[in-house]
Structure formats: C-alpha cells, structure tokens
C-alpha cells in the first residue's frame, strides 16, 4: 500500500502495480509539509547520473500521413517535432500544451514520492523526476540514499482533470528494464477505471495498452511492436463511445465496449516501476523516460 498522503486525497493501489503513490504537490498545494518533505528528500538523494548516452537531436521529418496529430517539424526540438497546433485534430480544440521549457516542473504537475502500492520493494524519488534542456526526464537508478535500491520517477498532471479528451505525448526511453507507463488515472483515486496507453512491461521493443474496468477488474489489452528507444508520438483519444490508441498518427488499438469506457474525471500520469522484489521488470543498468512535449485536446470547435 502507498504511504500516507501529503494532500487531502488518499492514494490507493491499482491492480498488481498499484499506480499511485503520494504526490509531492505542485503550485495548487502549498502546504509546508509537502515543501519540507520534497526539499529533504531532494537533499538526501544522490545526484542523478548523466543521461543515458549523449542526447541526440533527430533530423526533422514530415508528419505521419495518419489522421491523428504527430507534431510539427522543428529542428530546434529534441525530438525534431514541436507540439501540434490548435487545428491539428478536427472536431477538437487545443486545451493544454507544454514543451517542458525551462528547468522546473510545470504548474499543475506533481512529482511522486514514496512506496508504490503493490510494489513493496519499489520507491519513487523526488530527485528522479526533472526537467532539463526542454525535456521531462524520469530516471531509474540505484540511489545510495535509499540503501542503493533501484529508485524511479513518477509524475501526475493532478492539477488538470477532465472527462473525455485526446492526449498526445512525444516520448522515448533509453532501454529496457523498469516498467514504463503513460496512463489516465481517476482523479478520485478510486480504482478502476484505468487507461494505460503506453505500458512497456520492461521491454524496449514493444508496448501494450490496457483498459481496466468493473468491480472485478476486467482488462482489455492490445499491443504493438516498436522501437521504444526512438522518438514516437503516443496518443489516446477517449470519447463517450470508444477509446482509440494511437502511435505516430495511426490507430493500433480500439476499445468500444460501453462498460469499459470511463465516465469519471481522469488525469495524465507518467511513471516507472522497478519491481525487483517481485522478480520482474528489474533493471540491470540506469534507464530513463524522456518526454519532449504534451498536447491535449477537448471536443469543440
């Protein structure tokens, strides 16, 4: 189970992974306890290792011919694509975009800390999530401040929840090891539902999607083989009638069972899990998730 929360909402475990631990609140929550704990953990944590390999900028390329946005060619971007524009998704309007500029976590985003529910040997560390050189990084490495255990990064956009919408995330990972997840999670923390639109299971050559729903945690899954160390634009389009899973502009999964479609406010989360105590998804070397940008759309003109 997660440790006691800093804020007003409990953090309950999801399925075997137990998605949420306690977040260190961002600008919406300014309680002294959260600030003191965040500073203390950051001071105790060892310095993060250098990024896995020198960060390379990819050459600009044309957007995918698929019907969903991929991004706008821009050689100044780490991934060679800037966020898509306001009119990139017909029938939708742009509601939020961040390019992770500067050197701090954007307002409305909260960093995870504590023991993940369902993973008693794991730990989220404040210093394992950072923004640098226009990229959000989640870092997995052995941290001496945690008895040399594998510690991982996690973050939620807890300051912005909605019912229905389209989310697009430009990201890559440095290699295999921990479970890397991009997902939508209920704002109330009452699980299920859960929409995982990019969950690697520790792989660097494939990823999966899953929709969790119902009192007995029914799960609908799909997957795709892809080089996860290359930049891709991952998307989930959540409507009242279906959920579409998208990579680089093309649909690779679909859920249309009415019982599976969430009808509650949900937030965007990114996280890593090193589940060594459970003998799976255990790293053998430092690893990181990089996110260049996030763009979110809602139905409307």
What does this protein structure show overall?
With 301 residues, the chain is mainly beta. Helix content is 4%, strand content 38%. The protein has one helix spanning 32-44, and strands at residues 22-24, 72-73, 81-82, 92-98, 110-113, 129-132, 135-143, 149-151, 154-156, 165-173, 179-186, 194-199, 206-213, 218-225, 232-238, 243-247, 250-255, 266-273, 287-299. The strands form three sheets. Strands 4, 6, 7, 8, 10, 15, 16, 17 and 19 form a nine-stranded antiparallel β-sheet that branches. Strands 1-5-9-18-11-12-13-14 form an eight-stranded antiparallel β-sheet. Strands 2-3 form a two-stranded antiparallel ribbon.
What can be said about this structure in brief?
The protein has one helix at residues 32-44; strands at 22-24, 72-73, 81-82, 92-98, 110-113, 129-132, 135-143, 149-151, 154-156, 165-173, 179-186, 194-199, 206-213, 218-225, 232-238, 243-247, 250-255, 266-273, 287-299. With 301 residues, the chain is mostly beta strands.
Question: Which ranges are low-confidence, i.e. pLDDT below 50, for 5 or more consecutive residues?
Answer: 1-18, 25-47, 50-54, 56-64
State the name of the first-level CATH class.
Mainly Beta
Determine the structural class based on helices, strands and strand pairing: mainly beta
Helix content: under 10%
Distance between the termini: 43 Å
Shape: globular
Mean pLDDT: 84
User: Into how many domains do the coordinates divide?
Assistant: 1
Count the DSSP helices. 1
């Amino acid at each position: 189970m997660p440790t006691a929360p800093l804020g007003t909402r409990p953090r309950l475990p999801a399925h075997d992974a137990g998605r949420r631990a306690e977040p260190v609140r961002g600008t919406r929550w300014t309680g002294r306890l959260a600030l003191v704990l965040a500073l203390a953990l950051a001071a105790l944590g060892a310095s993060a290792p250098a990024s896995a390999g020198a960060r390379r900028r990819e050459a600009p390329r044309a957007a995918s011919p698929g019907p969903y946005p991929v991004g706008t060619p821009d050689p100044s971007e780490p991934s060679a694509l800037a966020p898509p524009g306001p009119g990139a998704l017909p029938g939708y309007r742009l509601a939020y975009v961040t390019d992770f500029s500067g050197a701090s976590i954007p307002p409305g985003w909260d960093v995870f800390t504590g023991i993940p529910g369902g993973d008693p040997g794991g730990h989220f560390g404040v210093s394992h999530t950072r923004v640098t050189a226009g990229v959000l990084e989640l870092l997995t490495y052995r941290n001496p401040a945690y008895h040399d255990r594998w510690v991982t990064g996690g973050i939620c956009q807890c300051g912005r929840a909605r019912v229905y919408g389209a989310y697009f995330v430009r990201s890559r990972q440095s290699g295999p090891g921990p479970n890397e997840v991009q997902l939508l999670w209920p704002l109330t923390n009452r699980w299920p539902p859960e929409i995982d639109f990019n969950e690697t299971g520790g792989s660097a050559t494939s990823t999966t999607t899953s929709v969790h729903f119902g009192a007995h945690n029914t799960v609908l899954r799909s997957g795709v083989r892809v080089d996860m160390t290359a930049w891709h634009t991952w998307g989930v389009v959540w409507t009242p009638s279906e959920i579409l899973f998208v990579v680089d502009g093309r649909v690779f999964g679909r859920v249309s069972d009415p019982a599976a479609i969430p009808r509650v406010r949900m937030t965007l989360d990114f996280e890593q899990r090193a589940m060594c105590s459970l003998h799976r998804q255990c790293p053998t070397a430092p690893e990181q998730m990089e996110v260049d940008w996030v763009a979110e759309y809602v139905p409307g003109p």
